[in-house]
Amino acid sequence: MFIRTFKQKDKKTGRVYENHKLVESIRTEKGPRQRVIMSLGTLTIPKIDWPRLAHALECRIRGQKSLLQDHDVELEQLALKLVSNNSLSKSLEVLSDEIQQTETPKSHDSQALGDLETIKTKETRSLGAEVVCMKAWDLLGFSDMLRKLKFSTKSVSLAMVLIFGRLVSPGSERQTIEWFRKRSALQEIPGMADLRKCGKDRFYNVADELYAHKDRIESMLFQKEREIFPHTESTVFLFDITNTYLEGSALNNSLAARGHCKSKRSDCPLITLSLIVGDDGLPICSQIYKGNQSEPETMERMLRRLSEQLHGNQIPIFKPTVVMDRGIATEENVRWLHDNEYHYILIRRSDCSNEYRELFETKRDEFELVKSKRSVHGDMNSVYVRKEVSDDGNCRVLCFSEGKGRKEQAIASGKKNPFLEAIAGLRSSITKGTIKDPTKIENKLKQILDKFPKIGKRYDVTLDRIDKKITGISFVETIVKPEPLHGCYVIETSHAERSGKEIWKLYMTLTRVESAFRSMKETLGLRPVYHQRADRSAAHLFLAVLAYHLLATIENILTQQGDTRTWKKLREVLSTLTRGTVAIRDAKGAAYHVRVSNEPEDVHHEILSKLKIPSLPKRVISKIDTL
Question: ∠ CA 29-31-36 to the nearest 5 degrees?
């Protein structure tokens, strides 16, 4: 807004009068125009102060806080006086005039909104996270992709709800439907089909349909993401596997099985998800297995599928470097990678650090410092490496982490020896006379030795006897294990040409896939799974994978601009950007509903600008019978 001088001639006297008005530039069908917001009379302040006065007036009219400095008190008071002398409701009428012309029925006359006491707000819904998700959806071409797979317009919108729901309000599909209907403004974003009459079965059916096209969707997403975030031939792919638990018995779920639960829910059946992620954190392909799936068994299948996705039936120009942790790096898998000419960086399942004990204990001062960071407790967490290449060309990087060493030391010091505890309990029972029969004592000792066979072999245990009476137990440690090398580990790689520091850094990118699993579990509602059918359970997991594609796209775009906030933090910041209905009555008593997005704050503008989101849904004004 700005102030403009208007000249008017008195027809009787011929005298020319000056009148100042607050005006605003607008776009119309006939081109740019100016409209008058309010009349200011004749101003006596210097023209240099007009822009600051216009700013103060605009803030007063819109109900915003003025940004004028303390020394502009006189301008603030003048703005307050001018607004008070004018009809504020008339100003509101002018500001909403353009919206009324384009979005309300022509039969509605624009009336001054006079009764400010009647203003109410209602039906506030979340909007900020939804428009950000929509930006990532459009960038990845999700709608076009699903149309190619013969999804109807309504099914595309239903898929959008299911996937956005995981990002904005994580939970089950039922919770997503509840969020969409009662807490989200997603239905009001342009391009959405009208889903108000869709029952929950329509949502579940679309989830099933998405999973039925899983491989094609992942392949198309992979190609699109490589267009947005190009890669070189030295691409690193990170492979890992996780599981989550199912609520209920899941008796008819063929994917449900008992196993080691990484969420510490040993009372529940499990379902397993494996994932290959790029070094930029973008997911490439996934696979869903039974809950008792062995980690090593998934690698070959996933890499063969990856090769087909990358090269189809063509001869591969290059093969990526595969990074994996010790859970998957068995002797058989390492041999398969070598035989199939894959480069790899891994830590073997069997600990190799003892082979280099002398170097770890006596040559640590010759290791290279690759990282040094102070922890929140004030301790230095430094990492040192040393590269070793054997005569047969095998390359290993010896690593020592101070922080990891302190952590392992603390765990070891608090860890008890269950075998010695059981022996001490039996000795106490003999001393107290609780158990006296020699046969029962011998049987009890045998049970302890059978229960702890590995630890028991390290001790020579004998029963003390006096006159055929057992009086106690003696034991001597015959096999003394060397002190563990806390904080030491060995990285093995086929990249013998790289430095130890480069190899260590590449291995540490494995945290990206760990971060992906953590995001899906904690941020995208992966767990728990409530479905009792295998197809529905798999579809639930696949929705989390699709949501992670959007999450990783958003985070990568922001990271390129120096913004390292996670989606969890972004979602929290965007939660205050909402859309609501303002109910108001005009001077003639007619009632109106104004559906409007709230004015973005500076922190919202920052995010929207970085993601190049130009605008929010427009205001909609409708006349109603009563407030």
Answer: 95
